[in-house]
């Protein structure tokens, strides 16, 4: 590249592009599409600053990866496979390419997986594939391999996806910045200074353990304050209910007033790659806008709730008495609120984010400390702080329901239901 | 209100809501709609962080107003009319309520004015009107009066709209924060400390002049680095071309593959209030997505350019030789690029933002300094810095055109056209 | 006060003075003296930014206290005794008044206690006493009572000295700011929002527990990264050795080339209040400068080491073999390095800072959570994170010695000594 | 160097040391001495955060220089003389080595120049000289040449001393950080991106002019808000009066109760290099402490004023009526306040700082813009903003005097004096 190009970025100040291939990938239409998908899905309904896109996060992951590799090269670490640089950068940039609108809700409702779509875009008939193929005919497959974690060098994969990867480092900082939740900030430069390649792994100098503790504490704070926030979850549940209702109506051959092909094919479960690339948050939002005017009262009502942010309320509980639940559903039915569309019981185990728990998930490489005698130890064996975080399963059981249910309740007759709903935080 | 409520905000840390009316206004569907309209229109195509909404800016203007009033009350300034507090706060919160998607482009193409729509929403059959009417039957009119600058107390209007108003203070800080352009930051607390009410005006203590110089310099930097950025302008022009093409096709009774009522009524120039409230950036973006597949090649091509960020290039010029221009149009026609849809000459005077120029615009109250002898002086008479900014008309003349025009040009034959296009920054 | 006055402060932006008494206290010579005493003693030799004074910290503690009280008043909490406002503010401002230069080293060497000196200054014939007496004849005693924790209202004392007090809140933020160690930052506004007065205590709303976890994690990071840093400790030990040597020489009637009264009286253990007020870091530093030229080789050498930052090295150990230690002392004696002046074994229990450990120290009020049923719980019963921090005794045992000892060591003969010294971090 | 070393720095996050020579220079006693000299002299009496040392500033200048050179090397600019790297770094690190305590006051009172002392230390019998000589026997002379601006390559000198040099870039950021005056912040990375070597100069890409405007505006704000602050100036004047009084007493063979050699030699104007190296702010402060107890009432009184921050008041004036002045001196004499020690008339031209004024000072290289046609233009020809700053001579004439003068004045009889003193800001 003749001269390095930069993007102004609020998190990293500047993002430096030094390779033509990276520049060209950013300018493909598939990558530009990420501008139309929010990084945090429905979180903007809880934190109004959280309106940032997957486009900016993807640039950020690329930049963090570039900084790590640049430090490895500057220090001339022998365990760093220099020839993998471009592959790492491309995989970092593209790893979220397959994300669709409100991924968590859609994936749950229709069984899609964004990782699969990322690979389909990289390997399919796309501008991204065309650019990658210029490097070599095998290059797209290698990039897909890193994204899907089948590439044969752990060190390459773990830069992009591990317990201490460029993906998390960018999203923690970025989500903290845009939500304004500054206790999610950690000292990126300090972490970068203590990681290094070692025998096929990315490891952490043991004397730098505090820096990683700080990073994991930020993660812990972000998970409980932002990612698991029940209001965000409430909006996700509402979206999910809308999709379920639409599917149900479709199966009953309901005539939709507003419908476009990509959404129809999503409901029919026969999305093509071209359909998928048309699916962005604008299309979904527009669908909600016009379905608000549908004649099906339930669909219309659910969509209005989402648009106007009249979300479901929630209560926490430890154990759920099935009889109380049945009585609650009875009341709802009497009020014309079909439980299938208006009630949700949510266990935190179904959540898509994690806090640090080594060993639970086999594809997440744990964090290894390297001491001065060249011994590797998993961090929970050394850090009480990390151990305490790893052991915490603070996720609460929640029940979500419309606010008017509480208002309409005869509290004398339904004292048990009232007790369930009254236990708000 | 029983207990103050807060919103986490990245710019002001927290936004404090202390009145039920404010809380209820925020929860109306008309106010929630502002979440679906970006504060900076097409700027996100230049600065990828600029994805923040008018919702967050509106909360910010409210918060700055609240801080100013709270300082006035704490200092018990006699010239402050305490009874206007709630009116100021409501007007601050709602002043941008009528903004539509990509306002600058739409207003230019269809002759709408967001200030008018703000008043229509405040006065019409809306949730906002219902909430305001609870204060008193005249209250909605008073709020509309402040927004449209017809209210009879200058001091109330100037808190929301003047050369040193809560609107500008919030947007400069917010836009700087989200773009990452930190030279747009100024010290808000320092400015707040030097303003005070005085005989029906908001004035600045003369000894605090430096604080205002700092604010005006930030504004100057933001205008030239962000608001007037030619890439942003290029995207606005493209949108405008799309609307013009659609209007033209409509007049020729073209059968659109994708059309929804609010857009049809916009083109027909017969938007109702209910239509307008449905118009948000999602709908516009969705329109662009599906018009990309229209059979009209020009409309389809223009929409694809916007979506995939293949914007027009631009060149600067001092004077434009009409003969050269004619020859350029000739080449374009030969290449099948109709100049009406693919060429734009842009003079900076048509821009919607201003830098500080007292006296030029009659509805912008100038900045007055108050000295210890109770004399008022307009700031340009005291500050050489401000005088130098006020005198600058740095806006350049630009010509916008498709990149392939340059590539397709026979440079020997069209050396004059080449010279025009070659003078890039 | 006619108009509030401000100090520009890098940590809190502005410090607001709203009472004449506070303004006059700041302008006393005893308070101005705090400008000549560094907040972090010898830490500037580890973190070069840590040059800030106790003067700025004292203003900061005042400001945090003012913010807390102002929030209590704004919310009209009934459990807040409004009449104690000025007492709290004065005690907050003056609580560190008795600190001398390099307090930790001096207090250890000469058995002085800064709390006692604070009270002597408040109660003695000083400008501070004169200003306080203007409030009422008993006021100086009340202020001293709060500082020495004998005042009869826990809530007043705990604002200034408890596990979650204005003192700690300011110093964590300030020390993080000036050292540049930004992982010591926590969100002050967030903490302030969750504390409230309750039945004579300052408590924390249970739903705000995360905010306090964040604050305690910052504290944890600051303790291990800054306050317990072994290089800082090494400089403290060196100072202590210098004082011990000087005391020894004085007892042997050595004729000092440079001596001034306050230092002489310090060594003689007969400091008057007037002497003490003359003792600042400049005098101590000047003493070191001129003692560098003393004819006593040990005193001169130790002072040069401090001035030129040739500090003792350190090694960590788990257990200390007394035989190895004896052999090490033997080598030192042979090299002319008297162990009494050149060797120190340091156990972390003797350190002056603490991390959060409820119950260990009887004068530190623990952090209490208040739930919605008005029940109080000590935080370690609810937070695994805090429990994990409280249980950690990571302080290591260190041995400090001159670098040349290692160089001069015959490693074959003294392999055991070498092994002890080799175990550096 | 085996592995790069870092210093934690609040302004640049980390300072990276990559050469043994730099590391060894930092560890010399002459460089460590800079820890005992404040960067901003008496400014800490105006801004309590301004307690940072010349040590930290010197590291910062080194780091900015390192970043600039690293960018030049990364971009492989041909006009950059690579072989000058180490010379630039050493000169940057050492350029302030000769600063003494409260330089401005001392230099004015005794006619010393810190640049001369810097060169004497570099060339004399010092640890610094010893380290530099290891590079080559001529190296100390080359370093001194760059510091004294006699080296034969402008590009090397101008990195360290020019209108856009590493020295200013660090001190503006650092002084803004430590005072808390955040309007002195500018975007360092943005400026670094637009400078480049060109035909023996450091120039700025014309398209980056806004970045330099931003830097110059920060400078303008810092000069008027911080560097020229009249309270700081008042403290400098007081110090100067103290030195003059001491000189006068010495000439009259007064027997000082407290005196040490370096101060005596300073007064006698026969400082040796060894004396000078002992002179730091601690020694000066200690002198003030003990001179507060001198029997000469004037010396004692002046010293107490400084220590206890009872500074002279000031008034501004346009023109000074000599008769009024004479009457004022008459009153002062009657009150026992000798004008020579208690009165100062101050014209801003005598100040040691400048704002940007090309051509006025021949040793300050101006800022040159380089356009795409390789033409160089001095920035004031292109920027109205910079022109407006350059033309401003806002320095006011001040008269400084003790506060009690005003209180003791019979306002009826001395209405003219009162009028002079009454014109405060």
Overall average pLDDT of chain A: 91
- Most extensive interface: A-B, 44 and 44 residues
Strand order across the largest sheet of chain A:
3-4-7-8
- From the 3D structure, determine the CATH topology of the largest domain in chain A: Hypothetical protein af1432
CATH C-level label of the largest domain in chain A? Mainly Alpha
Low-confidence stretches of chain A: none
In the residues of chain A, how many domains can be counted? 2
Please give the number of β-strands of chain A. Answer: 9
Supply Rg of chain A.
Answer: 23 Å
- Ends distance of chain A: 55 Å
Shape of chain A: globular
Explain what the structure shows:
Four copies of one chain form a homotetramer. The first copy, chain A, is α+β, with helices and mostly antiparallel strands and 425 residues long. Chain A has two domains: 5-227, Hypothetical protein af1432 (Orthogonal Bundle), CATH 1.10.3210; 230-349 and 395-422, Up-down Bundle (Growth Hormone, Chain: A). Helices cover 52% and strands 9% of the residues of chain A. Chain A contains 22 helices and nine strands. Chain A has helices at 20-26, 29-32, 54-74, 85-94, 103-110, 114-123, 127-133, 139-147, 154-160, 166-179, 188-194, 209-227, 230-251, 261-268, 273-278, 281-291, 297-307, 322-335, 339-342, 384-390, 403-408, 415-422; strands at residues 5-9, 13-17, 195-198, 201-205, 313-317, 344-346, 368-370, 376-378, 397-401. A four-stranded mixed β-sheet of chain A has the order 3-4-7-8. In chain A, strands 5-9-6 form a three-stranded antiparallel β-sheet, with helices on both faces. In chain A, strand 1 (5-9) and strand 2 form a beta hairpin. In chain A, helix 5 (103-110) runs parallel beside helix 13. The longest helix of chain A has 22 residues, at 230-251. Chain A starts with a strand and ends with a helix. Chains A and C meet through helix 12 and helix 20 of A and helix 12 and helix 20 of C.
């Amino acid at each position: 590249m003749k001269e390095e190009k930069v993007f102004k970025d609020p998190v990293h100040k500047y993002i430096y592009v030094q390779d033509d291939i990276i520049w060209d990938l950013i300018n493909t239409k598939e990558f530009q599409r990420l501008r139309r998908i929010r990084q945090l899905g429905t979180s903007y309904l809880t934190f109004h600053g959280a309106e940032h896109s997957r486009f900016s996060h993807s640039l950020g992951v690329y930049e963090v990866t570039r900084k790590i590799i640049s430090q490895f090269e500057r220090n001339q670490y022998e365990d760093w496979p220099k020839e993998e640089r471009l592959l790492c950068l491309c995989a970092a940039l593209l790893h979220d390419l397959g994300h669709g609108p409100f991924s968590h809700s859609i994936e749950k409702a229709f069984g899609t997986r964004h990782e699969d779509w990322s690979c389909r875009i990289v390997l399919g008939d796309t501008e991204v594939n065309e650019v990658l193929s210029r490097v070599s005919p095998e290059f797209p497959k290698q990039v897909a391999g890193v994204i899907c974690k089948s590439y044969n060098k752990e060190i390459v994969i773990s830069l992009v996806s591990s317990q201490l990867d460029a993906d998390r480092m960018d999203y923690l900082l970025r989500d903290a910045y845009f939500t304004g939740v500054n206790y999610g900030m950690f000292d990126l430069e300090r972490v970068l200074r203590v990681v290094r390649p070692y025998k096929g792994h990315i490891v952490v100098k043991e004397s730098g353990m505090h820096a990683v503790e700080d990073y994991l504490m930020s993660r812990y704070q972000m998970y409980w304050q932002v990612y698991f926030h029940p209001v965000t979850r409430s909006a996700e549940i509402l979206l999910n209910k809308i999709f379920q209702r639409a599917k149900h109506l479709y199966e009953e051959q309901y005539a939709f007033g507003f419908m476009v092909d990509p959404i129809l094919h999503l409901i029919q479960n026969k999305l093509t790659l071209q359909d998928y690339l048309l699916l962005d948050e604008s299309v979904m939002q527009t669908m909600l806008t016009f379905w608000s005017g549908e004649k099906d009262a339930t669909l219309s009502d659910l969509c209005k709730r989402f648009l106007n942010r009249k979300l479901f309320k929630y209560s926490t509980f430890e154990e759920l008495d099935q009889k109380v639940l049945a009585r609650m559903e009875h009341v709802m039915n009497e009020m014309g609120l079909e439980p299938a569309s208006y009630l949700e019981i949510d266990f935190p185990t179904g959540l898509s984010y994690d806090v640090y728990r080594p060993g639970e998930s086999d594809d997440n490489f744990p964090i290894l400390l390297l001491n001065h005698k060249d011994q590797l130890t998993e961090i929970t064996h050394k850090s009480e702080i990390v151990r305490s975080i790893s052991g915490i399963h603070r996720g609460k059981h929640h029940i979500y329901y419309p606010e008017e249910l509480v208002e309409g309740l005869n509290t004398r007759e339904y004292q048990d239901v009232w007790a369930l709903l009254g236990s708000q935080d």
